[in-house]
Every structure is written in C-alpha cells, then in structure tokens.
Design brief:
The chain is α/β, with parallel strands linked by helices. Helices cover 44% and strands 16% of the residues. The protein has a seven-stranded mixed beta sheet, with helices on both faces. A four-stranded antiparallel beta sheet has the order 11-12-15-14, with helices on one face. A two-stranded parallel ribbon has the order 1-13. The protein binds pyridoxal-5'-phosphate.
C-alpha cells in the first residue's frame, strides 16, 4: 500500500470516540483526555508512515488503536515519578534520587505539609519570622560557623556566594579544581553567570601558593577552593591546603570561599571509610564561606547550605537571588529533622538511611545477600543460576570517588533469556528494579535494598524469566 492510501485509511477520531470500548475509557477519565491520546497515537503513526523508506508499514486498525489507547491511558494516569528498587549498591545515586528519608521523618514532615505551620511566624512575638530561623541555630551549633543560610541546592549556593561577594571582580581558583558535576554544573560556567571573572592558576596537577600570590591584583575579589569531590588527581600533585589559603587571604584582605560539595558532618574514618574533609574542619581552618549539598553525605533533602562569617551571609541575604533560590517548607522541615539527628552523634548513622547504608558492616551484608539468594532461589525452576560473592559498592553522588565499600552481592545468571531483555522488563515492572549488570550476569547489591522488598524482587524475577522462557 502506498503512503497516501495508508494515511487515508487512518480511522477518524470522531468515529473512534463513538466506539463502545472508547466510551469505557471516557467514563474513567474525560472525553478531552481520550481525544488527546487518540490524536497522539494517530500522529505518531502518521509520522512513522511519512518517515518509512522501505514501504513496510501496515494499515492502522481500530483494534490496534484501542489496544494502544488502553496502554497509554494507564501510563498517563498513573504516577510517572515513583518508587524504584535500587539494586546497584550505589547509595547516593543521583539518577535514583540521592539521599532517602526515613519512616520516622515521614510523620513530622507530613504534619508540617498537611497543616498550617509557623514557617514565617515568630511564635514568641507574633510578628513575621524567617523560614531560615528553624535551621540556623542548629547549623551554627553543629558546624561552629558564625551564621548560615540555606538555598535550593549547592549549585545555587555557589552562584549566590560568588554573585554576592565577587560580582564584577576576579576570583582565583586552582586549575586542578575546575570541576564538572553531573554535566550541568561547571565551575567556569557558574562563575560567568555570577558576574565574577575566573582566574585559573597553577596547572592541572600542581598549584602552589605562589600561583595564587602572583595573580592577586586590584581586581581580585575572592579566592575559591573547590573540593574535587568526584575525582582525585593522583601521583605528582600539590594543592594548597585550606588553612594556608586562609592565612594568605587574611594578609591580602581577601575572603576565601570553599565549595565542599558533599558536606560531611561526622568523621567517616570512625566507620572504616577514608577521611573525607568535614565541614567542621573547614570552619576551624577559617574559611569565610563554605557551601555544601543537603542530599549527599549529609543525608537530607535537596538543599544548598551556606555557612560562614556574618558579614558575608548578611550580604547574601540582601541579594535578590536569595529569594529566587528560596527553600520550601518541605525542605525546611526535613532538613531540621536531619540536623536534629546530628545533635546526637551516637545515633546519627542509625537514623539517616544514607549513612546507615554506607556504614553497613560487611557481616550484615553477607547475611542480607544469603537471605536474598535463598528467597529468589526458592522460586527458581532451573531457569537461572544463583550465587553470592564479595564485591564493592560505591558511595555515589560525586562523594568519595575512590572509596570501595566491601559488600556481598547476589549474582543471577540466566540460562536462556538474554540479560538485556530481563533488565528491560525489570525496569518496566510495577515497582521497577534497577540492578547492576556485568559480564552477562545480573548483580543485586543488598546494601541499597530494603529487606521488605526481597519477596517482591523474587516474584518479579521469576515471573519475567518464565514469561520470556
Ligand atoms: C555536588 C556538587 C555540587 C553541586 O551540588 P548540588 O547540590 O547537586 O547542586 C557543587 N560542587 C561540588 C564540589 C559538588 O560535589
């Protein structure tokens, strides 16, 4: 059939709307939505016909359209953003939403969201209050900083800082620290947007204090240090420690800004991890401004926390960008709760899901892996082979890039079914399951999987493999 014939034979939307099957969908939603979806299905087909080079297209029947309508209808109505099971073992997985809230947080946060709150009301005076007041005292106590401000994310925190402190001036950064985070955050671009001029000094692997020194001019407005959180330069390297940069800045009356990236508030070495510079260490070293994320190692909501000397924070509060980057009550509430966990360091890793996953003992992971293997194995009908072995998980979120967290994983090797098709079906399951795949085996890392999901995972894998068998 030629293209014109195919296009002429497309059933009309009006006719489709009269069909008994379509009426059922209309009753479930609205005539507008059904019309919208029908037009979309037809338009898609029309485009395919027009693009078809080989003349392989068949006429589009009413039945085919109704089948497609049913599928698109349920996809359109059901929530598109939904829970998934993270089998990758990467704890702060940016594509999977970074840090998780705990069950306990749910109640507190929900109370604030579903009721009126004193978000901007000072209960002692009855006057207008500040949404930041719920957070500032706790942040100051935990970090030791003079003052604090919170914006939507760390990218906004860096932009606000540079724009408030160094607009129209030069900012000196080491060439080894011109980081890119997740593609869209690049220090040179943020700098440009802020109205400050980037002066990169030193070389990729080595920057000395004299490199900063020889580039300070009348135009210099600040010195910036960026934590190279998602990579490490190794071998023949040299960077200027924060403390030295601060001393140098003091001598020149230049503020020192540090973008810490992840922002750890506890010493991870105590839990057998590599040393990650803590926020408190940066405050002690005397940085004027420090910025970090709320949803990386801190374990809270998406947010950018800015701490430092009062004079600079005051300047930022007057910047219109602060209003544009304002956090909402969900962030205030959940971040306050997270911060309150840090008031008791002994319990913090148990209370914050991200931290408890990162610090989960290897013996516990072996136990979880054995249990998961057993549950999946119970429903195995000889269609795949199961085993466990030692492996490594990642922290993720651009934090501790070299840290290999020892774990025990479950490995599934499918006998006949191609792994890519199982992977796709797992992604399309009612609660999608995201595994790791390596050497044609599927890997499930129990570090990031909740035990209450084990049964669901087993049933889903079994169903998929049988369907594809
Ligand atoms: C992650 C990161 C950012 C961006 O933080 P977001 O909270 O994702 O906006 C900026 N700088 C560094 C060094 C980072 O690691």
């Amino acid at each position: 059939m030629n293209k014109n014939q195919l296009l002429r034979e497309i059933p009309s939307v009006d006719r489709l709307l009269q069909k008994e099957e379509t009426l059922i969908f209309i009753r479930k939603s609205s005539v507008e939505l059904v019309t919208h979806l029908l037009r979309r299905i037809i338009e898609e087909y029309r485009k395919k016909v027009l693009a078809d080079q080989k003349g392989q297209m068949h006429p589009l029947s009413e039945e085919q359209i109704i089948t497609k309508l049913e599928k698109e209808m349920s996809q359109f109505i059901e929530m598109n953003l939904k829970q998934v099971i993270n089998g990758t073992g990467t704890v702060l997985h940016t594509n999977l939403g970074r840090a998780l809230f705990s069950e306990e947080m749910k109640e507190e946060v929900w109370k604030v969201l579903s009721n009126y709150s004193n978000l901007e009301l000072d209960l002692s005076t009855g006057k207008r209050g500040s949404r930041y007041s719920h957070l500032v005292e706790k942040i100051k106590f935990i970090t030791g900083a003079e003052d604090a401000l919170v914006v939507n994310n760390n990218a906004a925190a860096v932009l606000l800082t540079l724009s408030s402190i160094a607009k129209g001036k030069e900012v000196i950064v080491s060439r080894g620290e011109l980081v890119e985070i997740g593609g869209a955050f690049r220090i040179p671009d943020v700098m440009e947007q802020s109205g400050a001029t980037l002066v990169d000094v030193g070389t990729t692997n080595k920057t000395h204090l004299r490199d900063y020194e020889s580039n300070v001019t009348e135009e210099t407005g600040a010195l910036l240090k960026v934590h190279t959180s998602n990579y490490k330069i190794m071998g023949f390297t040299k960077e200027v420690p924060l403390k030295e940069l601060v001393d140098f800045g003091k001598g020149k009356s230049l503020p020192v800004i540090e973008d810490l990236g992840s922002g750890v508030l506890i010493d991870l070495e105590k839990y057998g991890l590599a040393h990650e510079p803590t926020v408190q260490e940066s405050v002690k070293a005397g940085a004027d401004i420090i910025t970090f994320s709320g949803d990386k190692l801190l374990g809270g909501p998406q947010a950018g926390i800015i701490i430092g000397k009062r004079e600079w924070i005051d300047k930022m509060k007057k910047n219109p960008l602060t209003r544009a980057f304002r956090i909402d009550k969900m962030t205030v509430s959940s971040l306050e709760m997270i911060l309150s966990y840090y008031l008791r360091e002994e319990t913090v890793v148990n209370k914050i899901p991200g931290l408890s996953m990162i610090t989960m003992p290897y013996e516990r992971l072996v136990e979880k892996a054995e249990k998961l293997k057993q549950i999946i194995g119970k429903k195995n009908e000889g269609l795949f082979t199961l085993s466990t072995r030692e492996d490594y998980s990642q922290v993720g979120g651009g934090s501790l890039p070299l840290e290999q967290l020892k774990t025990e994983v479950v490995i599934i090797e499918f006998h006949k079914t191609p792994i890519s098709s199982v992977e796709k079906a797992l992604r399309e399951a009612s609660i999608p399951i995201i595994p790791r795949v390596s050497n044609d085996a599927m890997i499930l890392d129990p570090r990031t999987i909740n035990e209450r999901d084990f049964d669901y995972i087993a049933t889903t894998i079994q169903r998929i493999v049988k369907e594809k068998h």
